[in-house]
Amino acid sequence: MCSEDSDKIAGITERVVVMDLILVKLLLTPTLIACVSLAQRRWGPIVGGLLVGLPLTSAPLLLVLSLERGPHFAAQAATAALFGQACVALFCFGYAQAAMRHRRQRCITAAAGCYLISALVADGLRISVQLLGILVVTVVAVVVSYWPVPAERPVRVVPPPAWEVPMRMLVSVVSTLGLAGAASLLGPARAGLLAAFPVFVCILVLRTHRSAGDPATIAFLRGTVQSVWSGTAFFLTVALTITTMGTAVAFAAALGAAALVAAGTGLLRKQSAARFTVREQATLNRG
Fold first, then answer.
1. Fewest beta carbons within 10 Å, which of 10, 103, 280, 285?
2. Which residues of 32-50 are buried (b: 16+ CB within 10 A; e: fewer)?
């Protein structure tokens, strides 16, 4: 009798876990995407870039991989996604540079090429997580230092179509389900690199470029690069802690680290904008 009760409890527990995984795959990522899309409409391209650069698809996917395939698989995927943050920064830099001279099609091709080349380099790297974190921070810092400054042009504003947000949510579900299903074939490293690919940055940057021109596009991408610091903190924390502390503690610590870095990045951005305004006003007064 006790054995039958144990089997029933195990069966119920297994069904609950399966249902939780289905809910994570179907609801978590599209909900995040909808919130970010609405925030971009409300607060503009820079805030939208800061939010969309967060690991909105890769973090939920990493949670699914940890629950389905164990913390060791998730740790390897998080390590690959960590380097993927440098790839995201190079993606944004490639698009921003191209946006000053070319149309959207060439810009997205250049950006995807930057991501692909850097991902191929990452696939051959064999270094510790700590050194990888230092490498990613260095790459992002160099990208920020050499960020292009667009010429001042009038900003065009085109109302977004009604289907845009639902389409983004649908794409998020398809990408999460697809990568989670293909993870066993790809392996943790390639799954992590693919998870870090900025799918929604692609969608939003093309939309911003078409509707508002290259100055707003470059501002959006700059915000995305600034949010890479948060993604770096998130994946570094997960990679270092998930095998020893478990999924729940690792993700809680990673979210806390990402939130702290995001708050610090936002504060620095405000201070930088304030200093720029003061210098600009001083220049006008002298004139």
1. 285
2. bbeebbeebeeebbbbbbb
Q: Are the beta carbons of 183 and 191 closer than 8 angstroms?
A: yes
159: phi then psi, degrees, rounded to nearest 5 = -60, 135
pLDDT in tens, 118-137: 998 887 778 899 999 999 99
Sign of CA dihedral 148, 198, 31, 66: negative
The total of other beta-carbon atoms located within 10 Å of residue 92's CB is: 30
The residue written with tokens 């991501």 in the block is 115
Say if CB 180 and CB 65 are below 8 A apart.
Answer: yes
Confidence of residue 95 (pLDDT cuts 50, 70, 90): very high
- Which residue range forms the structural domain that includes residue 61? 2-286
Q: Are 76 and 188 in contact (CB under 8 A)?
A: yes
Q: Which token pair is 74?
A: 């998730």
- Per the structure block, which two tokens stand in for 123? 């696939």
Distance CA 58, CA 34 (A): 16
Distances (CA, A) of 85 to 5, 57, 96, 121, 230: 47, 13, 17, 13, 10
Burial of 208 (0-12, 13-18, 19+ CB in 10 A): buried
CA–CA dist 125, 237 (Å, integer): 19
What's the pTM value of the predicted model, to 2 decimals?
Answer: 0.75
Domain total of the chain: 1
- Following DSSP, what letter does each residue of 239-250 receive, concatenated? HHHHHHH-HHHH
CB atoms within 10 A of CB 104: 18
- Distance CA(73)–CA(93), nearest Å, equals 31
Helices (H) and strands (E) counted in the chain, each on its own, are: 11, 0
Give residue 168's pLDDT band: very low, low, confident or very high (50, 70, 90).
low
